[in-house]
Amino acid sequence: MAKTIQAIRGMNDCLPEVSGTWQRVESTLRQVVANYGYQEIRTPIVESTDLFKRSIGEVTDIVEKEMYTFEDRNGDSLTLRPEGTASCVRAGNEHGLLYNQQQRLWYMGPMFRHERPQKGRYRQFHQFGVETYGLEGPDIDVEVILLSARIWKAFGISDQVTLQINSLGSNDARQRYRDALIDYLKVRSAQLDEDSLRRLETNPLRVLDSKNPDVQAAIQDAPSLLDYLDDESQAHFSNLCERLSQAGIQYEVNPRLVRGLDYYNRTVFEWVTESLGAQGTVCAGGRYDGLVEQLGGKATPAVGFAMGMERLVLLLTTLQATGQDNIAADVYVTSLGADAYALEVAESLRDALPSLKVMMHCGGGNFKKQLKRADKSGAAVAVLLGSEEAENKQATVKPLRGEGEQQTVSLANLADVLKAQMD
Ligand code: ATP
Ligand code: MG
After folding, report:
1. What is the pLDDT of residues 116-125, one digit of tens each?
2. Residue 284 Cβ contacting ligand 1 at under 6 Å
3. β-bridge pairing 358-360 and 381-385
4. Distance 247 CA to ligand 2 centre (A)
5. Which pTM was predicted?
6. Is 310's C-beta closer than 6 angstroms to any atom of ligand 1?
7. In this structure, is residue 240 part of a structural domain?
8. Which of 208, 331, 402, 417 reaches 20 to 30 Å from 149, CA-CA?
9. Number of structural domains the chain divides into
């Protein structure tokens, strides 16, 4: 036998047993963003490597060790996108969508990072994100947070996630904080790991983002960014906090929240859950007022977030019965000696009830065998068609689950009878 070929490690197939849940997640997300007047943007999966180096930052986990970078046949260095924000800004600059304009955008799609695969962490994963441009906030910062909160509400998981927020202030404020942090960390260098020691020199704020418990312990009493904020960022942040409270959003201020990408300033936030183990951040974002200019555009304020869709689907399948999402059929049409009539009935049902899943039995066999298939399909109702039904233009309706009697009805009434059964 030939050797089978397997999927690349950390890159998952989405099988029929969960693809229905994915579809529900995607359509609910689309609905929520439409509800706020956001428009979709689609960008290529492959971009110039420079785009990510210049935006995410050279001294970040993503750029240092997680990117899928390769040379194409022209010798250009290309990278499979590890996130969506950089591409959005690139496209916005390229097509003149940003300067002097207001944009509320969203995207959804696969991202690629060469990380160690584990629950909630994959090498091809999917993000849903929103990005807004041309708005200084904090009103828009509140809006994107409210939008994310509405997503939890739409999935009935508001009680599973908590919001952490922080402000990174201006570049100057971060520079001053950086010096204080270096002084603090230098004294504790014995407790830092190799990565953190290197970052101490290159990008010390990154040390705060370390997942190593020893490093986490060492930064317990590190100076707080919030004590170094410039007056404007301070006002922006307290206004944000006030508006969140007014909107009834509960949050926790986490002065050590810095995020894994370099382009953020002022507002940063994460939604975290305790239901997924170590990979607890389901959504993360913040303000990135400098990025548009950094990538060659005119200075434009921006704020957005990205949500890990695998983690959202994991939350739903962990917490809720999602089997209903993945049922193949609502109605299963069987026939014996009435094949042509069965086709006609199935097609007429699809005309009359486009939202129902109508599956027709193929492959023959007696009614008993066909009803076994009907049961396996998950259908609530089977339609039985024999030569008598064909002759009289009738159909026999057999409920497969719960209460209800088998009954024979005229073809003209069939759609209404089925509709009533499904409600
Ligand atoms: P983490 O701290 O979990 O590594 P991150 O800070 O690298 O996350 P972002 O770049 O902000 O994450 O991405 C936003 C969201 O995308 C994360 O909060 C998470 O839900 C999801 N995400 C990030 N990396 C992965 C991955 N490798 N597999 C699955 N989901 C991911
Ligand atoms: Mg990461």
Report:
1. 999 999 999 9
2. yes
3. unpaired
4. 30
5. 0.93
6. yes
7. no
8. 208
9. 3
